[in-house]
Amino acid sequence: MPSSSAPEPVPLILTCGEPAGIGPELAPLARAAGEAFVWLGDPAHLPPGTRWTEDRAAEPGVLAVLPHRFPAAAWPGRPDPVNAAAVIEVIARAVELAQSGAAAGLVTAPISKLALKEGAGFAFPGHTEFLAHLAGGAEVAMMLASSTVNPPLRVVPATIHIPLSAVPEALTPKVLERAIRVTAAGLSRDFGLPHPRIAVAGLNPHAGEGGAMGGEERDWIAPLLDRLRAEGFDLSGPLPADTMFHAPARARYDAAVCAYHDQALIPIKTLDFAGGVNVTLGLPFIRTSPDHGTAFDIAGTGRADPSSTIAALRMARAMAAARAAT
Q1: What stretches in the chain show pLDDT beneath 50?
Q2: Where are the beta strands (DSSP E) in 264-303?
Q3: Residue 54: count of CB within 10 angstroms of its CB
Q4: pLDDT digits over 166-199, tens only?
Q5: I need a surface site. Which of 121, 138, 180, 299 has the fewest CB within 10 A?
Q6: Beta strands in 43-112 (DSSP E)
Q7: H-helix or E-strand spanning residue 182
Q8: Which helix (H) or strand (E) holds 270?
Q9: What's the sign of the alpha-carbon dihedral 38, 40, 44, 48?
């Protein structure tokens, strides 16, 4: 006879990240704030006195843990190369759970790319590229999304971790078009916006000012946007970046696609430093992350702020609901 009880909700997975950083401290803090998730990592790395259980249905204040044993202890602020391979294994295991349907999505605590490279030969620039690889080479985009400002701000840098001097050559029509398409698809699937409005920033000051301050906007960015508008995309731009991010401007779009890293990240970190969330668009599973690093300088001091982790968990949960509704 079928059970009359409702099925148990599929959980979010919060990965441990670099165990010498603040990742293990953030998990019990987020749980104490009432967030429900399963933490994937080595329980020996949790702060002393953390109450945890392997039972998913943990009582309030008790952390649900899926143990993944590491070869060495974790010392705050001092990453151990011996643990690097296990950090990578945790990410891959979380992806497997998400792809199998055993997890509603994953929230990744910060990693140290240098520690992973030195300890395990990690060949990827960061989490985003590794997750795209695990997903079979998916075309992805990094979005930073606010959680506490109104109107909200979502930004997608078309080029990311490259020198500013390399941006004009790296920002090609193909790169910008891909960023726009991935952003539009992600807003529809993950944020419940069937007709997303996207603002596109110019590369140059004043969006080139008709060629007086640079010709990219006139020569190829504007024609590209016109072609995509003809396909049905709701695009504004190319726009001067210095007038795109105040409240009245943000009310006119759902996300801003920017030319380079700082053009996108400075406004969102100014407006919502503690509540910013890193979202990977384009993956077959949901992934969010707090918008900060390992914070080795404060690890183990009791000063870790869980605000961004809590925002990442809540955004992942909302994204999972949006996907389920489509």
Answers
A1: 1-8
A2: 277-281, 287-290
A3: 11
A4: 999 999 999 999 999 999 999 999 999 999 999 9
A5: 121
A6: 52-53, 63-67, 105-107
A7: helix 173-191
A8: helix 261-271
A9: negative
